[in-house]
Structures are given as structure tokens and as C-alpha cells.
Amino acid sequence: MIRLAVTVTLAAAAVAGCRGAEDAGNDAAAPANAQGDSSTGGTKGAGTIGRTATQTADLRLFAQAVEAAGLAATFDGSISYTVFAPVNSAFEALPAATRSRLMAAAGRDQLTQILTHHVVVGDVTSQDLAAAMERGRGRATLATIAGPNITVMREGNGLVVTDAAGGRARIVQADRRQSNGYIHHIDAVLMPGSGEGEGAGGNSQ
Amino acid sequence: MRKLILLASATAMAVTMPVLAEAKSGGQGKGGGNPHAAHSGGGGRERGPEARQQRADHGGGRGHGRGGREIGVERGNGQGRVERGRGNERRVAREVERIERRDVHEARRIENRDWSGWLDRSDRRGGRHGFADRSSFFRDGRPLPVRAAAGQGCPPGLAKQNAFCMPPGQLRRAQMLGQRVDRNRFGAVPQEWLYRFRDDDQFYYLFDDDGFVYRVDRDNDLVSSIVPIFSSGLMIGEPLPLGYDVYNVPFAYRDDFVDGDEHFYRYDDNAIYRVDTETRLIEGVVALLSGNPISVGQRLPTGYDVYNLPSAYRGEYTDDADSMYRYADGGIYQVDPTTMLVEALVEMIV
């Protein structure tokens, strides 16, 4: 979705955010936990992605960003998405000026581009990721709504998502099943980079 | 002394402006007349109190952005100074009157300008890149002279800027319609856009650094149209641009997103947008489509390594040695795991 127009500043910010993520230790969710292992207890009575995000303290900034980008209705609908949702500390790792710019009306296009780089169509569980990594020699590639792909790999006991700019984020809580998809918490903001395909930015690690 | 007068007059204007606005009701929507507020549904109802407050705050919106009232209110000391004597009061009254006359004159000048270019739907080369359709903020081809636009959903930030619900830069640009421009301030249209904006016998085209093309009439050298070429797609909070009159939601989503009395839907750039029927403002995105769609008969695009079927369909379609299944944009596709060719669209589920 939408043209790519992410600045070097933003990509750098993603790296900065991810650096903090790598310090977070190996508390990433184990990928083998079963699909449907939901924090909300399965789809019965589960909220939507949007509602759950607004009600989850650690996704407060993500929910605000979704609202600012005008995507709230999307995640409250019935169409299935899987969202790799950055936790508050991931957004806080961005430079304050960058955050302000993104949250302003003038930054909506960029914000949308960034947020949709965290979204893939359908339901994707950690079990699905594990199965795909097994087939794909340790890597699973997912097309995001924004266009560029993200790649998921195992690292230690957890899963790491690499964005199109080469930044990395660790999945810190997986498989929050919702009525319209799944939420995986990640500890850094993903950036769509400046070109198609993963690792385009080449500024990882 | 001049400062004193201006401050006092500004304070006085804060009181007199709403009254003036009320008195100017009728005609071209003067005085806060909002043809949509009374009967708007959905978002209109939600915005009702805010809109009313904005009208109350701004007294009809005429003369917004001048800052006079704000200065007076902020300093809050004009009234005390006015009490120094009746001479001052008379001077203040005269000043208020003068400013009011200037304000009315300015409002009429803008209202009476030929805005037809702004609403020009006939520019066949404008297409989807043509100017935003701000018809909700216009009546009889002229802009509503008051902040009526705010009542129709103008974002509060913009509502504070001017009466036309436009960013200041955009308004300045819009006001160049029908004007002569200094050609030295402009450059040539970029090569890649010449297919759309090539000089001809009737018009020539100028280009500014902000990405706008100005179409100038050769007969009189007046700007007849301004087209933003770098801004494509739909912008949330902005009016729906030209070129989206036709319902274009992908078929898979048509049952879910049907045009109605309060909202209608348009598709663009991998997203389905909801638009307020009354205001034509784009309210938000209701569905995102994949950035890398699947097509039958083609190789499965990259990015579909992972089984991603919605939970309700997983029992029915499971990957095995002969087939794998992937979901995208409302459809479940069957893929040959050996060739990775997409063999069939087996079910539409939206």
C-alpha cells in the first residue's frame, strides 16, 4: 500500500529501537506454542484486533498510531489480518521529533506506510511461522500490506522479524488470537525501507 | 497608541463578530449556515457539538487567520484601557467599524472570485490527480464564506486555519486561480509528466517546486487550473479527489462495503476507504488489501511462505504434499507445492 517514502532518519530510528530490543533478553515467545493459544481464550468472546489493542496497556502507542492513521475501522472489522504490533517501548525508542511528525496530520502517509508494514493478510500463528521456517531453511517471508516483505527467523528461543530496511524486532508475545486475526507483540518498530524485498536497507545489526 | 487601539478593537471584535455573523445569515450561506448540519447522519451527528462550538468560537468564520481577536483575548487588557475616556471609545468604535468594513470587503472579494477552476471537472487530463472535490464547502460555485465547512467535518486543525478547510499553502495556491503568475517563479513541467501537461494552442503549463502544475490560458495569461501531480491516492481527513465518482470496490468486498446514505466506499492503492456521503470527507480505511496479490495461473508471489488461512477455514483447507493453500484479499487459493503455480481460487470468503 502506498508509495514508499521513509526517510533515513526513520530507518535509523528503527535500528535504534531494535538495538534496545536485542538487549531485552531471550524472553521471546516460543514459536511452538499452539495456534489458538490465545490470551483472550480463543475466538469465543475475543475482541477485534483494534479493540484489543486499545485495551492493552503495552499497545497504547500502537493503538494511538492506528487511530492517527485512520486504520481503526480496518482492525475492528471482520476481515482477517495478522498484526506484528510494536509495544510502547518500541515507539518510545523512536526520536521524539520523529514520533511527533508521524502522529501529525502531515505525517499520516508515512505513518500508514509504516503501520501497514506490520500487517499481513490472514491468520498467521507462531506455529505457522515455525512450519514455514522449517520448509524455508530457517526463514519465512511474509508479504506485508505495505508491499515490502518481512522475514521471520528463529534466534535463540525466540523469533525475530527483519523488516525491509534490515531492522530487527523480537516477538515478545505471540499468538493473541482475535475475532479477526492475530496479534504478535514485537519490541521494535518495523520500517518498510526504500525498496521491495527484505533487507533492502542493509543496515541491520 | 496605535497598538492600544488595535488591541481594544480586537477585543471588541471578539464580541461583535458572532453578532455580525448571525446577522449575515442567508444568501450564500453566510452566518454559519450549514446546509448539512441539520440533517447529516453518522459522522455528522458525532461532529454536531464540536461544529456548533466552532461556529460559536469563530463567529461565522469570516476573517479567520488574522489573529486580531486572539491577540485581544490573550492579552486581556484592552478593556481597561478603553475605559480611559470616551474619546478612546469613539476611536475604538471607528476602528472596529473600519476593520469590519475591511473584513466584509475581503470576504466579498474572495467569495466573488471565479472559483470555477477549483471545481473544474472537465479537465480530462486531471483525472484522479485533479484537485480534491471540495464541493461540500462550496455553494453555487463559490466557497462557503463561513466556517460552515467545519460543521461538515473539516478537521479542527484546518478549521482554525481558514474558512475553506484548506491548509494555508493550499489556500494560497487556490487563490492563484484566475490570477496572473510570475513565470520566473516556475520551472518546466518534468519530462515524465509532459504526456499529460504538454503546451498547446490554448494553454501552457508551469510547474512549482511543491509539485503543482499550473495550467495557464494563453488568451489572458490567467491560471485556469492547478493540478497536484505528486500527491496521489486518498488522504484521510481530506475530501475525496476527483475521479472517484464510480463505485470501485473489488468484487470480493462488495457485500461488506455497500454504498449507503451515510457512507460510501472507494478503493485505491490496496485500501478501501469510507467516505462521508454528506461531506465527501474520507473518514478512514475499512479494509487493507495485500500489497502482493495472488493471481491464478501465476507463480505464487514472494511473501506467502506461511500458511495464513483464517481460522474458520483451516479445517477445510490444509497444506499437504499435493496442495497448499494461501489466503489473500478475500480469496483462498490452491497452489501446487512443486511448481508453486497458483492453480485455483477455491473459495471467496469475504
What does this structure look like?
The complex is a heterodimer of chains A (205) and B (350). Chain A is an alpha+beta fold and 205 residues long. Chain A contains eight helices and seven strands, in the order ααααβαααβαβββββ. In chain A, a hairpin with a 2-residue loop joins β4 (149-155) and β5 (158-162). Chain A is globular. Chain B has eight helices and eleven strands. Chain B has helices spanning 2-23, 43-58, 68-75, 78-82, 86-111, 148-151, 156-159, 168-174; strands at residues 138-139, 142-143, 203-207, 212-217, 223-228, 263-268, 271-276, 282-288, 324-328, 331-335, 342-348. In chain B, α1 (2-23) crosses α3 and α1 (2-23) crosses α5. Chain B is elongated. Residues 1-84, 113-139 and 141-150 of chain B have low confidence and may be disordered. The chains are: A alpha+beta (205), B alpha+beta (350). Chains A and B meet through α4, α7, β2, α8 and β3 of A and β8 and β9 of B.
Residues in helix, % of chain A: 25-40%
For the biggest sheet of chain B, the summary is: 3 strands, antiparallel
Percentage of β-strand residues of chain A = 15-25%
pLDDT < 50 runs, ≥5 residues of chain A: 1-42, 194-205
Query: Structural class of the helix and strand makeup of chain B?
Result: alpha+beta
Oligomeric state as shown: heterodimer
Helix and strand succession of chain A? HHHHEHHHEHEEEEE
Sum up the overall morphology of chain B in one term.
elongated
Biggest chain pair interface: A-B, 50 and 41 residues
Considering DSSP H and I runs of 4 or more, what fraction of the residues of chain B is helical? 25-40%
Give the strand order, joined by hyphens, for the main sheet of chain A.
2-1-7-6-5-4-3
Task: Report Rg of chain A.
Answer: 15 Å
Radius of gyration of chain B: 27 Å
Residue stretches of chain B low in confidence (pLDDT < 50, at least 5 long) are 1-84, 113-139, 141-150
Major β-sheet profile of chain A: 7 strands, mixed
Number of continuous helical runs of chain A: 8
